[in-house]
Amino acid sequence: MKTLLKIEELAELLLAVVVFAYLPFAWWVLPATFLLPDLSALGYLAGPRVGAVSYNLFHHKALAVACGVAGWLLGIPVLLLAGAVLLAHAAFDRLLGYGLKYPTSFQHTHLGRIGRAAGPVA
């Protein structure tokens, strides 16, 4: 099952790249904006509860889909770009095993623990 889920995440990442390829932006825009959703982790400066909310908001695929669909329907390429970047980033994170955060700590995710406390991966 784990392999199947990783294939699904890879498919979503590739879909986001294909959508980006049809947008009127230079090729370097995607890698330049790819890590922007991680700025949401700055919410952890206000504590783990606020950090988890801000991080999860910008790593939730529903936000990516909503931005992308709104950009498409309204004819706003920048909004469609935001959706593609958010989807690509979230799928890549999940592919690497980083999940949405619980309010207990940054290392406690819906996919399990991350970091040194996680121990070896089986």
UniProtKB/TrEMBL annotation:
Pfam families xref list: DUF4260 (PF14079)
TM segments?
A: 12-30, 63-92
Keywords from the UniProt entry: Membrane, Transmembrane, Transmembrane helix
- Membrane recorded as keyword: yes
Q: What is this protein called?
A: DUF4260 family protein
Instruction: Please give the organism.
Output: Hymenobacter jeollabukensis
